[in-house]
Design a protein that fits this description.
Blueprint lengths: L11 H9 L3 E5 L22 H27 L4 E7 L5 H11 L6 E5 L6 H8 L2 E6 L2 H10 L11 E4 L6 E3 L13 H14 L7 E4 L20 E4 L14 H7 L7 E4 L7 E5 L2 H11 L1 E3 L10 E5 L4 E5 L1 H12 L4 E4 L4 E5 L1 H12 L32 H9 L32 H9 L3
Parallel strand pairs: 1-2, 2-3, 3-4, 4-5, 5-7, 7-8
Antiparallel strand pairs: 6-10, 9-10, 11-15, 12-13, 14-15
Helix pairs in contact: 1-2, 2-3, 3-4, 5-6
Length: about 450
């Protein structure tokens, strides 16, 4: 299986080519690209003055793009293999986008993979359109909860359960509060636990799809007939990035060939609240700098927080400790002149230019997530979380759109699975070789 990668990174061309080899190709249904009559990508330009208006435009774009990619994938596949659509349950309007694409591309999509949250309704929606659903989970406990609440009503449409390793997969990862992001666990006991739960529920013949950290098939050969985990399939998310059909830029592909072990790491800057796995670059270093330049404050002096400090264009008065006041004065002298308040009663210090960018991105919010920490958007009647927007985060839709459509990779968020550093030393990619999807699939069949 090809792992779906959002915001047009897995599209109809790449997923159709994967399916054409007899595999399962997966295109992203998250803000997918659509095209004009000349085949040019239609840029996302929002006219609405309110978030709610822009949100409606976003959903229209998403449905139009998803249908377009499904049609392309179907044509490229030549009717071979299987085609899946990948969606994030936490994306804004997930249910409407799913129904819009599945209805508009009826008969072209065989399955839906869905993670990033607890996608209870994915079973009902998939069954409604006669397609299989493949929930993405990171623990047996999560699947049991989904089954008890909803999936037991639609067992015949459960095509498989994707176990996504929360330490090794790219993009957003399902680490729980009890799990240490710096201490990866062996996936086999976790998958065996998932298989036991599934077998106890009568799902013995439903495959588990191992995702995250899968590079060479030879590393997983002993799983294939292991009764503790089988039947099992394998999903490749990172390796398909480096193919001729992959839509990412030449710069991005070249960067993948240079990564070292340790260049990919889990961070907690995403506005979703999830950990995410991405390449350590200037974009993430700037976010780390924001959080590092952070002090606690109160609006009325109390205890050690009784030293006056002024922030903002109006010179609003806050109170901080003596040591934090000294730090703030140092950061201001270094050019980080603007203090921005966070929802956790702290202030971060950024340059005036960065401050304007942050505030503009927040005001331009179009509700791409069901709930966003960066803009305080919430997909409910009030359309707000009631919390202050968090300037330590970023507009995820903007950066992912920018990188996939050609912006310099060092200036944007670059998701990658933990094993992306293997591109550099894998002999298959010697001398900068970039295979076609078919050449990659043929290579995988050798075990390498």
């Amino acid at each position: 299986m090809e792992g779906g990668k959002g915001i047009a990174v897995s599209n109809g061309e790449s997923s159709g080519a994967w399916a054409a080899t007899g595999g399962v190709g997966t295109f992203s249904g998250v803000n997918a690209d659509s095209y004009d009559e000349n085949g040019n990508i239609i840029p996302l330009a929002y006219q609405g003055r309110t978030r709610r208006d822009r949100h409606e435009e976003l959903l229209a774009y998403a449905i139009q793009g998803g249908i377009a990619q499904a049609r392309i994938a179907h044509d490229v596949s030549g009717g071979e293999g299987r085609l899946h659509m990948n969606v994030l349950w936490e994306m804004g309007g997930a249910e409407r986008v799913l129904r819009g694409v599945l209805g508009g591309a009826k008969g072209l999509i065989h399955g839906v993979t869905c993670g990033a949250g607890m996608p209870y309704k994915i079973a009902e929606i998939s069954a409604e359109y006669g397609v299989y659903y493949y929930p993405i989970v990171s623990s047996a406990r999560a699947f049991r909860a989904l089954w008890k609440r909803a999936y037991h009503k639609f067992p015949e449409w459960l095509g498989g359960v994707v176990y996504e390793d929360p330490w090794r997969a790219g993009g957003h990862n399902g680490l729980s509060n009890s799990e240490d992001p710096n201490v990866p666990e062996d996936p086999r006991p976790r998958v065996a636990e998932l298989r036991k739960v599934m077998n106890d529920l009568g799902l013995n013949s439903v495959p588990i799809v191992m995702a995250g950290g899968v590079w060479y098939m030879r590393d997983w050969a002993d799983w294939i007939e292991d009764p503790d985990v089988a039947p099992v399939a394998f999903q490749f998310g990172t390796r398909p990035l480096l193919t001729q059909e992959s839509p990412i830029s030449k710069e991005w592909k070249t960067r993948l060939l240079t990564l070292e072990e340790g260049d990919i790491f889990l961070n907690k800057f995403s506005p979703t609240g999830f950990y995410s796995s991405a390449v350590r670059n200037p974009f993430l270093r700037e976010l780390k700098g924001r959080s590092d330049r952070q002090i606690a404050f109160v609006e009325e002096a109390e205890g050690d927080l009784h030293h006056e400090f002024k922030i903002g264009a109006r010179g609003r008065q806050i109170f901080v400790t003596a040591s934090d006041k000294a730090l703030a004065e140092k950061w201001v002298s270094e050019g980080y002149t603007d203090g921005l308040r966070t929802p956790d009663s702290t202030v971060i210090f950024v340059s005036a230019e960065k401050s304007k960018e942050i505030q503009k991105d927040q005001s331009d919010c179009m509700g791409c997530l069901s709930q966003c920490q960066f803009s305080n958007w919430a997909q409910n009647e009030a359309a707000t979380t009631g919390r202050r927007p968090d300037p330590r985060s970023y507009c995820i839709q903007k950066t992912l759109q920018d990188i996939v459509h050609g912006d310099p990779v060092d200036d944007q968020l670059m998701f990658a699975g933990h094993n992306a550093f293997k591109f550099k030393d894998d002999p298959f990619y010697s001398n900068g070789f970039i295979p076609t999807v078919k050449e990659l699939i043929d290579r995988l069949h050798t075990g390498d």
